[in-house]
Write a structure and sequence with these properties.
single chain, three-stranded antiparallel β-sheet, Aspartate Aminotransferase, domain 1, 396 residues, 37% helix, 2 domains, seven-stranded mixed β-sheet, alpha/beta, 14 helices, 16 strands, Aspartate Aminotransferase, domain 2
Length: 396
């Protein structure tokens, strides 16, 4: 491999069709608040298999709007995993609520339902408001069992599916349940950051089957303003109309935000969505090659083979001497990454009282985890180079 050739852990794939879609949007009459937004939302809802989709500025905005739509308030307690990007927890804090972390299942790296159940059983009913499970690395959480537990305790569910468009789990009837389809979670969110399956530059999506929540989200993403005359509170006379509201009239009915996506970002997202299944197939093929290469290697911890329904946003190895390998790969222009530093041990959350030892399984995972290059345009020779470097490091 050329000494100047860089292999990142993740990378966007932009085609001539993507570029043309953006150019067409830029040359249209709308740069924002135009028809491309609804087109992208409808295509995405169809792809996921849900009733409604709301495009927003990014995944963090999506999470924030979900907590607002579900009316999270000061002192409300919400459960999530420590192995996630900070936004999964921060969204609750934005709304004034409190995050309670619960440990992971070390075999899947996902939020452990048994530990969540223990947490709920140890407190009076009504202590908690909701759960935010994360489809970490692209592996789908079994939301059917989480939904049963949530119903028992009167909790809502926000599914953080940022890593998992196209991912799924198999329910108790043997049916595929797509991540974000709304059959078990009240709301689900996705991210369109460049390293994700679908790239918009920045961008996010909220999916749901709940029409009431859908309408609240539409208002909240646009300053709390509505132009729907059937929702207006002020009179027609006040608005300046006679027998109906005038065309200019709008109302701010709640405190919202400017979390809109632009039309040219939506155009890029729609174009990327057209080949989402192809990208997913390539990710799974890359994962299969990694799996075979590292099967039964003595330096690898925690490898479990291919997982049905896994969307493989990340390919994670748990390895001995993680720091040494990370630096060795970097010296050879292979930029692996760590996903994630346990969220409860970030200084912000330490200030809330979380300490080392609170989430022992998540903390142990962090000592060994390493995300290898994983993106659809990763060439076989590049992947072989990464594999050879890792094997060489452990034989030096």
């Amino acid at each position: 491999m050329d000494n100047n050739h860089v292999i990142p852990y993740g990378k966007q794939h932009i085609t001539p069709e993507d570029i043309q879609a953006v150019v067409d949007a830029l040359q249209s009459d709308f740069l924002t608040q135009g028809p491309k937004i609804l087109e992208f939302e409808q295509k995405f809802a169809q792809y996921i298999g849900c009733e409604y989709a709301v495009a927003v500025a990014n995944g963090t905005a999506a999470l924030h709007l979900c907590t607002l739509a579900l009316e999270v308030k000061e002192h409300d307690k919400v459960i999530t995993t420590p192995i996630t990007f900070a936004a999964s927890a921060n969204c609750v804090r934005y709304a004034g609520g409190n995050i309670v972390f619960s440990d992971i299942d070390p075999s899947s790296y996902l939020l452990d339902i048994d530990k969540v159940k223990q947490l709920l059983e140890s407190s009076p009913k009504g202590t908690y408001r909701g759960i935010i499970p994360v489809d970490f690395a692209g592996r789908a959480v079994n939301l059917e069992v989480f939904k049963s537990l949530a119903d028992e305790y009167g909790l809502w569910i926000i599914e953080d599916a940022c890593h998992a468009p196209g991912g799924y789990f198999i329910d108790s009837t043997g049916k595929k349940q797509n991540c974000g389809n709304g059959n078990f979670a009240d709301l689900a969110i996705f991210s369109f950051h460049p390293v994700k399956h679908i790239a918009c530059g920045e961008g996010g999506m909220i999916t749901t089957n709940n029409e009431i929540l859908y309408k609240k989200l539409l208002m909240l993403r646009t300053h709390g303003i509505t132009k729907q005359d059937d929702l207006f509170v002020n009179t027609i006379e006040f608005a300046g109309g006679r027998d109906k509201y005038p065309g200019w009239y709008m109302e701010m009915q709640t405190l919202g935000f400017n979390y809109r996506l632009t039309d040219f970002q939506a155009a890029l997202g729609s174009s990327q969505l057209d080949r989402a299944d192809q990208g997913l197939m390539m990710r799974r093929k890359i994962a299969e090659i990694y799996n075979e290469a590292f099967k039964a290697k003595p330096f690898v911890k925690g490898q479990s083979g291919m997982v049905s329904g896994h969307a493989y946003h990340l390919y994670i190895l748990e390895v001995e001497n993680r720091l040494g390998l990370y630096n060795y790969l970097k010296e050879n222009k292979v930029y692996a990454q760590i996903h994630y530093i346990p969220c409860h041990l970030m200084p912000y959350y330490r200030d809330s009282g979380w300490e080392e030892g609170d989430m022992p399984l998540a903390e142990n995972y962090y000592k060994f985890c390493l995300s290898l290059p994983m993106y659809p345009t990763l060439e076989r020779k590049e992947q072989d180079f990464v594999i050879d470097l890792i094997n060489k490091f452990y034989t030096i």
